[in-house]
Design goal:
Number of helices of chain A: 14
Strand content of chain A: 5-15%
Largest interface: A-B, 57 and 57 residues
Oligomer: homodimer
Order of helices and strands of chain A: HEHEHEHHEHEHEEHEHEHHEEHHH
Radius of gyration of chain A: 20 Å
Largest sheet of chain A: 8 strands, parallel
CATH class of the largest domain in chain A: Alpha Beta
Chain lengths: 356, 356
């Protein structure tokens, strides 16, 4: 038997295994539904979806599963300020790369897009999504909660977990330093809040009463059993699902994950303006070695998008923004439903081995 | 029953629990012997001991226990180059701090001490120590192995673990990013080899055939059970033993550990010249914000020793070099033997809970 946890009960799933919401086209409705149908919780990484796109995605998922699923958004951030000097400094550093790729120099500065969080949250409430999760801070979630959703917040330290509990979340996803993707940090500094799961989980569960899920570096049943041993009552896996055929992971990204090792990633703000763990390559080196500061999130991503598009077309893996946790080298290419079943089997097997 | 592992069998101990060797006066013979007498493996952090001091320490430990114990040394490093300009730049940054503490400006530059590793290794061989471990690379250990010692090397990545196995170690201690103290990294870059235990252990055990111990962030039975779930067959705890009355931990250091939180530490080279995880304070901030580069190990430590000595006398915790892992906030002040028994009990309890 898989260990009984408050997380599975809360989410209404068979297993306390969440497929991490990854914004940017990875979490297709097919992936989300396959995970939920297998007894986990599929999650739509909806932060970059326009409100009507989110409504459509929810409808497609509902057409593929009658099981619970989640929708994840970014908390609103202060509007990024455009600094013309910083934009020019960045362009100067990237000029040789643009010349190499045959790209023209960018004209003008990127302009911060208007925030759509309020409208996205309204869709989540109207659609009565079963689970609503968020990262980068705390968006106003009262309407979604009143509409019946289970609320999950993201923390990177025990203090952040305590703040989420205070604000009324039903459970906390703690993001260990191993995790791929953007850091959810909102109270501590990005540097100091890179805490490994082994040290993080016990300190969080000793601090809060709500159940805790661990995200970061978990790729198989060994990681899930470890999370449960530490006191987590659930897990969230992102990188592990990037290899599934149902995910929207581009082919070059899949290849990079499969070929990576434990020291292949870095936490860097060079791609988007906000620290994120991704596979290290020459784009990271060029900007970090130049000493230029990345533009604030999301301007850095907008200002460098042309380079990534050209790199993708040219097969230049070293220039792409490929999110990956420190466990990336263990990625598998199983269909999502089969992956969930395998994770469950491995977890029970690991626990059985330990208790022999 | 505590799970049977190859590590306990190899070490000749009742439990696969190693008290980490911490150089600098922490691992008193009383601490080492208490851990070994309780069924763990006590270890002498001998890197800073002169050969005859090491011989004496071994004799005292042997007078207190007839159980196996370990001796740990640093691998020889390339001789540090003294750069007069770098020394002057550092002195300029530290001048206000020295004025504040009433210290004179240092005269001249620190001179790299002659290496004593060869003589230390000779003592370990002559004394036929039961277990010999090392970090920072691979010292010549043939004579110690021939004298009957079990050999443990330290790795921070799967590639380093594979190299240690290739060179003939009996087991590998993998140091997760959570670990307090100096990083053992010797092949990868210090930045990229900060891998959390959850991601690190499975990738190492999938790569090497020798048994693996996890170090980093483990403070209680939850962490030990997690390490075993991940595939480790033993654990090494440092910070957890700093709170024991038998350890040589200074009072200010004990207080700082007890008052710390998951985001209280940083990996920094400002204290010794080599990256180490320690409690963050204003000494770290002053040097990091100045942009000055620390001198190479061990010159940085020699060049700043006067400040730490004065800070200790003045109770200035913010200036001290206080090694600590990310689990420091969970430190306990139990006697070492009682701590080992508690860890064993908690581990078995955690496994029992999981398998219910």
């Amino acid at each position: 038997m898989f260990p009984a946890t408050r997380v599975a009960e809360l989410l209404g799933t068979r297993y306390p295994i969440v497929q991490a919401p990854m914004a940017g086209g990875f979490t297709t409705p097919e992936l989300v539904a396959a995970v939920s149908n297998a007894g986990g919780l599929g999650s739509i990484g909806a932060a970059l979806l326009a409100p009507e796109e989110l409504r459509d995605a929810i409808a497609v998922v509902r057409g593929l599963t009658d099981k619970p699923f989640g929708v994840n958004l970014f908390a609103p951030l202060p509007r990024a300020e455009v600094d013309a000097e910083a934009v020019a400094a960045l362009s100067a550093v990237l000029a040789p790369l643009r010349a190499e790729l045959g790209l023209p120099e960018p004209e003008g500065a990127p302009s911060p897009p208007p925030s759509i969080v309020t409208d996205q949250v309204a869709v989540a409430a109207e659609e009565r999504v079963p689970v609503f999760s968020f990262t980068f801070g705390i968006p106003p979630f009262e309407t979604v909660k009143e509409a019946g959703a289970v609320i999950l917040g993201t923390a990177t330290t025990a203090a952040e977990a305590a703040e989420l509990e205070e604000q009324g979340v039903d459970a906390v996803v703690v993001q260990g330093s191993e995790a791929g993707g953007h850091r959810g940090t909102f109270l501590s500094s990005f540097d100091q809040s890179l805490v490994g799961g082994i040290a993080l989980v016990p300190q969080v569960v000793d601090r809060v009463a709500v159940p805790v899920l661990l995200a970061g570096g978990i790729m198989d049943g060994r990681g899930i059993a470890a999370a449960l041993a530490l006191g987590a009552e659930g897990v969230q896996l992102g990188t592990a699902f990037l290899g599934c055929p149902e995910s929207g992971t581009p082919e070059l990204h899949r290849r990079a994950l499969a070929g990576s090792s434990d020291d292949a990633t870095a936490v860097t703000a060079v791609f988007s303006g906000r620290p994120a763990r991704a596979i290290r390559g020459s784009f990271v080196d060029v900007i970090e070695e130049s000493g230029v500061h990345p533009l604030p999130f999301p301007l850095q991503g907008m200002a460098t998008m042309d380079i990534r598009n050209a790199a993708a077309a040219d097969g230049r893996m070293d220039l792409l923004f490929m999110l990956a946790g420190q466990g990336a080298g263990m990625v598998r290419s199983l269909p999502a439903g089969e992956l969930v079943e395998t994770l469950v089997h491995e977890t029970m097997e690991t626990i059985r081995e330990m208790s022999r």
